[in-house]
Design goal:
Blueprint (H helix, E strand, L loop, with lengths): L1 E5 L3 H13 L3 E5 L2 H8 L9 E5 L1 E2 L2 E2 H10 L6 E5 L4 H9 L4 E4 L4 H16 L5 E4 L2 E4 L4 E4 L2 E3 L3 H12 L5 E2 H7 L9 H15 L4 E4 L3 E4 L2
Parallel strand pairs: 1-2, 1-3, 3-6, 6-7
Antiparallel strand pairs: 4-5, 8-9, 9-10, 10-11, 12-14, 13-14
Helix pairs in contact: 6-8
The structure holds calcium ion (CA).
The site of calcium ion has 5 residues, from strand 4.
């Protein structure tokens, strides 16, 4: 899953990005409102699944970015990052359309579970275990089961299945999938992606992931 982190504090930003990477999320880290605004304008193409948004930025308010995003009708999940004493900004964030908030400094496990929760809500999945195409995908344990048997997957293979499951029944373009698997913004090579998909078909069944020639992949369609 690929995230946008907007945070001007260099120590905190680096710490959050490290925590994300350690939990299997890739991210782009931007430090000012102007860059974040430009990036959000193409959030769909950039395959952003969730935004972590600091409110006080050197060239503007995070809240303004959030308001603009919602005014455009975007339901992109946004988690506001707020200081412990800034209760008013937390409430303002939720009023402006934030999906959740976290108090700084953030705790990695808490961060990961909040991200999973808000992205699940948007994907229409209410439980931690998704049932898609005959697979039971446990996003908390990062595990896939078929008829009760755990299938041994590499972390990258799990990320591919989870990302396809978030878009179940719809075609996920290859470039978006490759981007969402990038460790730090550098997309996975298509060749490598194809090898992973090949291995996944061997483990999960040949028909589980369908190739839509020239476009991408679809899980269970
Ligand atoms: Ca700040």
């Amino acid at each position: 899953m690929h995230l946008l982190l907007v945070e001007d504090d260099l120590d905190l930003g680096a710490e959050i990005q490290r925590a994300l990477q350690g939990r299997g999320f890739s991210s782009v880290w931007l430090r000012c409102a102007r860059d974040a605004r430009a990036h959000l304008a193409q959030a769909e193409d950039a395959a952003i699944a969730c935004v972590l948004l600091d409110l006080g930025l050197p060239d503007g308010e995070g809240l303004d970015l959030l308001t603009e995003l919602r005014a455009r009708g975007s339901d992109l999940p946004v988690i506001v990052l707020t200081a412990r004493d800034a209760l008013h900004s937390r409430e303002a964030g939720l009023d402006a359309g934030a999906d959740d908030y976290l108090i700084k400094p953030v705790e990695p496990a808490e961060l990961a579970s909040r991200i999973r929760a808000v992205t699940r809500r948007v994907g229409g999945h209410s439980s931690q275990v998704w049932s898609v195409a005959g697979l039971q995908i446990d996003t908390g344990r990062r595990e896939v089961q078929i008829d009760g048997d755990v299938i041994g997957l590499s972390p990258k293979e799990f990320m591919i299945v989870a990302e396809l499951a978030r878009h179940a029944g719809r075609v996920l373009p290859k470039h978006r999938l490759a981007r969402s698997l990038a460790p730090l913004g550098e997309p996975l090579e298509f060749n490598a992606l194809e090898v992973h998909v090949h291995n996944l078909r061997r483990k999960l069944g040949a028909d589980t992931i369908r190739t839509v020639r020239g476009v991408g992949y679809v899980l269970g369609g």
